[in-house]
Amino acid sequence: MASTQDSNDTAPLVLIHRLPRFNISFTHWLRPKFYPLEPSDPSYATLAPSARVLLPVGPTPVDSGTLDLFPAVECVVGSSAGLNHIDLAECRRRGVRVTSAGEAFSDDVADYAIGLLIDVLRRVSAANRFVRAGLWPVKDEYPLGSKLGGKRVGIVGLGSIGSRIATRLEAFGCVIAYNSRNKKASVPFPYYTNVHDLAASSDALIICCALSNETHHIINKDVLTALGKKGVIVNVGRGALVDEKELVQFLVRNEIGGAGLDVFENEPVVPEELYALDNVVLSPHKAVATPESFAAVKEVIIGNLEAFFSNKPLLSQVKSE
Amino acid sequence: MASTQDSNDTAPLVLIHRLPRFNISFTHWLRPKFYPLEPSDPSYATLAPSARVLLPVGPTPVDSGTLDLFPAVECVVGSSAGLNHIDLAECRRRGVRVTSAGEAFSDDVADYAIGLLIDVLRRVSAANRFVRAGLWPVKDEYPLGSKLGGKRVGIVGLGSIGSRIATRLEAFGCVIAYNSRNKKASVPFPYYTNVHDLAASSDALIICCALSNETHHIINKDVLTALGKKGVIVNVGRGALVDEKELVQFLVRNEIGGAGLDVFENEPVVPEELYALDNVVLSPHKAVATPESFAAVKEVIIGNLEAFFSNKPLLSQVKSE
Question: How many helices and strands, by DSSP H and E, does chain A display?
């Protein structure tokens, strides 16, 4: 599969960096414009030190050790919406620019967040289980769900994804508020400076902010307590935004109303206590995953590479803090 | 529970009409303004012949035989959105007015339809099964769903529910078209005079029209063929709008893409072939069911009764064809 760069191949090198478990080649589409340099390439040892661009596949970590290995790297082209696997501070210190997937995944993640919220509130997956278990003809009564319209939904992180979630929720007649690092100008929704107060004023929280040292376990015991017994959590951000042990305890003890979780602290491990709960919807980190969004992210990556190698502004450069 | 109407009780009679399986009293909230006359009431035989209003519980049928039994009835106060269980032509012939639940259920049904569509397209329930079966750590690959944005969604029946579905779909960036008895003025979406042509131009069909002789099996073999291999069906209307045997065959043979079904031809029986399919979401006729919508329908019923007994226009009278 890996063809060595021959003397006529002047395509710019793109150093592919991947965890061993991501062992499928999905960078063939970079050719022939670019030369994806895989560790399996016979010329890897020769060429890698001169590569100016690093492309970490999915959540493959990029830290100071990685950057030490590839001293010529000037730009890390990310392929995901969240970049918590890339040490942004270290990149900044070294003058290495970083790009994200931009808005390629935003619509799909927003759609999925709404899907999870409707599912938990209206018990869609639970209804599906009920019917498939053959219970409908036997048990006439089925526990009611709860109406989406009029619900106060708190969005944690009103960026590219969060603002799309807000647009969708408005069409359902929800009452929206948000928390984010800063109050957004020209946003009509009430802003809360902290997640605790947002939770106390919300029937549901949708978590879609970036994971950083500041947002690690932003949803903790106090926030869950403030959300209350009927409150619902939807997480389409990163698992570690939520103190998962606490969340499991709150769910097991019926101290919150339910949860729709696409992400977990220790993926692909999901706390087994959740399997038994009817008010929880579990999903294998797939809010981003459609053929359409994958096509869009390839376009963003190619656009960033073209921009980099022609000294134009990058399409989706991550801003320094 | 049933207290006989005593000589001081001048509350107007409301004759409660119910299938034996709906044996729970949920008309106590009519008191004390009205006197709900149940078959179990000791005065039933004496009072029923003079009752001017009939309240059929849920889908309890009202046909010419029913109306023969209660000759004083001038108004049938329905408690559901669909009125296919009431013989509207026969009521019209006898000058009996009929009311529906009006818009009490419309938002909830629209929400649920969107929930089912996201679920089928993005495989939410299937993902939930996948995780709960412990497969995530084992099988790295998970079949992709499909993006909602840009999908051409055909709405069959653009009434109170269908128009709310359209509002929601617009926020997701869907391309909307519709079929209904007549083209609606002031609706921007393309109108198709027949469902076959709508299906041929759609990626998904959402069925939310009234069930009548004209719409029985409106989704038949030809329509499913026109919808095509990747097409998705969502039915929140009535089971008999779809030729269920054909639908099952199309799903089993992978001749359409998937289905989200809240209603079935022979409820509570669900064709068992569907249990094995991962691209089908099954739900026990609960799109209408939230505490909020039940409160709203009670208000509509009381409003109609008050209007009837004070000779004012009914709130949600069904128009004659």
Answer: 10, 12
Q: Does the distance separating the beta carbons of A131 and B286 come in below 8 Å?
A: no
Give the domain range for residue B199.
106-282
Q: In B82-163, at which residue ranges do the beta strands (DSSP E only) sit?
A: 97-99, 152-156
Helices B106-122 and B291-309, interaxial angle, to 10°? 150
Instruction: Single out the residue of B187, B194, B121, B119 nearest to residue B156, CA to CA.
Output: B194
* Alpha carbons A229 and A215: distance in angstroms, whole number: 24
Q: Answer yes or no: is A5 within a domain.
A: no
CB A17 within 8 A of CB A54: yes
Same domain, A60 and A123: no
As a whole number of Å, the CA-based R_g of chain B is 22
Compute the nearest-CA separation of B261 from chain A (Å): 10
Give yes or no: residues A261 and A271 share one domain. yes
Q: What's the number of domains chain A is made of?
A: 2
Residues A118 and A235 in one domain: yes
Tens-digit pLDDT profile for residues A7-54: 557 899 999 998 877 766 668 899 999 999 998 899 999 999 999 999
Q: What is the ipTM of this complex?
A: 0.93
**Rounded CA gap, A286 and A309, in Å?**
32
Give the CA distances from residue B120 to residues A128, A309, B178, B204, B235, in Å, rounded to whole numbers and listed in that order.
12, 42, 20, 10, 12
Give tens-digit pLDDT for B241-273.
999 999 999 999 999 999 999 999 999 999 999
What's the pLDDT tens digit per position in B200-229? 999 999 999 999 999 999 999 999 999 999
The catalytically annotated residue of A97, A103, A238, A244 is A238
Q: Do B284 and A142 touch (CB under 8 A)?
A: yes
Asked if omega into A32 is within 30° of 0 (cis), the reply is yes
The residue length of chain B stands at: 321
